[in-house]
Amino acid sequence: MTTFLTLLFYFSAAVLLVGVSLKIAAYARTPAPLLIPTTPAPTTTGGVVLRMLREVTLFESLFKANLWTWAASMVFHASLALVLIRHLRYFTEPVWSWVALAQPFGLYAGLSMVLGLAGLWARRIFVERIRYISTPSDHLMLALLLSIAASGLCMKFFSHTDIIGVKSFILGMMRFDLQPLPADGALYLHLLLVASLLLIFPFSKLLHAPGVFFSPSRNQADNPREKRHLAPWAAELEK
Amino acid sequence: MADAITAPPYRIIPIIPALKPGSMAGSIPYIANEKMQEAIGFPGKLADNWQETHDAVIAKMGELLSKYRSLKVYLDACVHCGACSDKCHYFIGTQDPKNMPVARQDLMRSIYRRYFTLPGKLFPKLVGARDLTREVLDEWYSYYNQCSECRRCSVFCPYGIDTAEITMAAKEILDSVGYGQKYSNEIIGKVHKIGNNLGLPGPALENTLEGLEEDVKEDTGIDVRFPLDVKGAEVLLITPSADFFAEPHIDSLIGYAKVFHASGVSWTLSSMASEAGNFGMFIGNYEQLRKIALRVREAALELGVKRIVVGECGHAWRVAYSFWNTLIGVGAGANDPYAIQLQNQLDLRYKQPMHICEFTWDLIQRGGLSFDKEANDKHIITFHDSCNVARASRMGDLPGGQFEIPRNIIKTVANNFVEMRDNTTREKTFCCGGGGGLLTDELLDLRVKGALPRMEALQQVTDSHGVNFMATICAICKAQFTKVLPIYGFDRRVVGGVHQLVSNAIKLGDK
């Protein structure tokens, strides 16, 4: 199991990195021939950076759209961030001091993450419009994230796993010096699910994370009268 | 058939409607005939062999994915969160779930997934991917012609996904395989052949303008000119051709002329560029968009004007403000010979191009105009923000100037101004229901239903404040409301232009 999971993680991490890099490169390479910011929009680059920051940290547009969806996704995403920070303790030796400080928050975040996901799923099941637009993969994605959270919480609250062993396994992977993984069903499940999440990231709607930064309606400055904006293929038409 | 069209009932509480799947599947605008298609460089009709069309659609989609970052990112990024699902006026009015912005996008996203992504190739059912069939293409034709490209959904999307971009891509693909929409493509043909969307030839335009001079003289006793093709004029006015003879559009044209008269700035219209509208945007075709705009560049160079001002037209202002610098070099800050040729001629101390509302407001602020506000006292006025002005352009120096400047003008020329409900104005404004190339009679049922949210908001201020005039700065809004207002029980003259109000109140004598 140690070897299998190690290889799986190497593979899925590679797929994640290469896949997302390729996607980002493709987004960056594709021209945006016309200025299409959704106005009112900032007129300067500094303003655009602020708009984007508000969008990715506060979910500004979603807040305008629907308070319930906003609340559930805010709870989920913020919790996920805290949980990821908490998990950094398995990847750092010695553990960074701010990671150590964040530990208790990360623990509660594990619970609120489940709440947030449950809220999002409830909406998908009970709101007619959202049910209509949901594909099986939308449900599976929530199931996957919920199972990851549940198996993780299970190891904290019900059957403690040997976290010293987990840490040496992960550090071993990072240093290409394999260490045995503690034999524990919940742990196996947790790691398997996380690996599959990494695997599907570049091929799924999880691309919304890098995608938002490339969204022309959000990342363009509103300055068409002051600056001439011309895509290479459009410039060809003038020749 | 038109007699059967009635207004949907107002929602008692404006809650989200229950779904009525398929209720608008029969909304299909007339298809462009071979002549119209070929006149603007598209194949005349669909290939007899489906496989050929199938392959051409996928190839075109691939091409657009490599040319438009918006399309590429937007097809990937959607998480089906539903933020947009209750925001479209056509969904609210029709309750057809395929008019939810996300579902409208998914009509194309499902094909994108199937042919351009790994999971869609391997597990189509799982990710909502499907094969491209003739039925899918027909569905595109129906539902992408039920989107007015108003961008309201893009305001609320956490990733800024703009359904208008998807709709434009779909129309571009449909045109490229010979499946174009008659209304838009016929109009584009007319612009190239005659010079404007309404097919008004030069001599007729000249007559109309002379007639207007006489009317205004009779009305005010003052010689207000409507100059045409005057070389060396300071300002070239580009305005939608509806302003030349449609009601209530023409009253705003008179307003512009009076403002120019009072300002003392010399101005001219152009018979070559007698159209501000640019339906190339509606069909998402960059070449047409550019070709139609080029007439403005040619007219500006030929007449040697120093400034270009644009009349009251929503999508035209989007094209002028956001795209003209890119398309034809009307703007500033260029460093290539093509654009510099024009930018050296233009007086860059002024905004290029400038909206007529910016022009008028600028004069007002400098004390250059005086008004008799009481002349508008019969009106209790509200303002309908037009979607392309509100969400795809700007006026003035600050973001949001497109909301403030027209309102400031109204408040300067009239005493009674009332706002409609909050979430129906400014960037959250509702489309009139007739934008995006849908202003055609066979789509009247859709247009009436799409107007529902705006009519509800108007009814509210009519009941509470006695509003009897809805000012707007878009030729399509004016035409659409003139048609739709009576169906909702309003007088058709409730809609009018901002410069119609200016025209009522402006004092021409004492300047």
Please, could you describe this protein's structure?
The complex is a heterodimer of chains A (239) and B (511). By secondary structure, chain A is mostly helical. Chain A has one domain: Up-down Bundle (Fumarate Reductase Cytochrome B subunit), CATH 1.20.950. Chain A has helices spanning 2-29, 45-58, 60-65, 67-87, 97-126, 128-133, 136-157, 163-174, 185-200, 208-211, 216-219, 232-236. Chain B starts with 33 loop residues before the first helix and ends in a 6-residue tail after the last helix. In chain B, helix 2 crosses helix 9. Chain B has helices at residues 34-39, 50-67, 69-77, 89-94, 101-116, 118-122, 134-143, 152-156, 163-176, 182-194, 202-220, 249-263, 279-282, 286-303, 314-328, 337-345, 356-365, 387-392, 401-413, 444-450, 452-465, 475-484, 498-505; strands spanning 235-238, 267-268, 307-310, 354-355, 381-383, 469-472, 495-497. Among the domains of chain B are: 2-180, no CATH class; 193-360, no CATH class. Chain B is globular and about 75 Å long. Chains A and B meet through helix 1, helix 3, helix 6, helix 7 and helix 11 of A and helix 2, helix 3, helix 5, helix 8 and helix 14 of B.
Helix content of chain A: over 70%
SSE sequence of chain A, one letter per element: HHHHHHHHHHHH
Stretches with pLDDT under 50, minimum 5 residues of chain A: none
Number of domains of chain A: 1
Q: Treating each run of at least 4 consecutive H or I residues as one helix, how many helices of chain B?
A: 23
CATH homology group of chain A: Transmembrane di-heme cytochromes, Chain C
Q: How many angstroms separate the termini of chain A? A: 63 Å
Q: What's the assembly state of these chains?
A: heterodimer
Report the C-alpha radius of gyration of chain B, rounded. 23 Å
Chain pair forming the biggest interface: A-B, 65 and 81 residues
Structural class of chain A: mainly alpha
Strands of chain B, count: 7
Major sheet summary line of chain B: 4 strands, parallel
Largest sheet of chain A, in brief, is: none
CATH architecture grouping of chain A:
Up-down Bundle
Give the H and E element order of chain B: HHHHHHHHHHHEHEHHEHHEHEHHHHEHEH
Mean pLDDT level of chain A: 95
Shape of chain A: globular
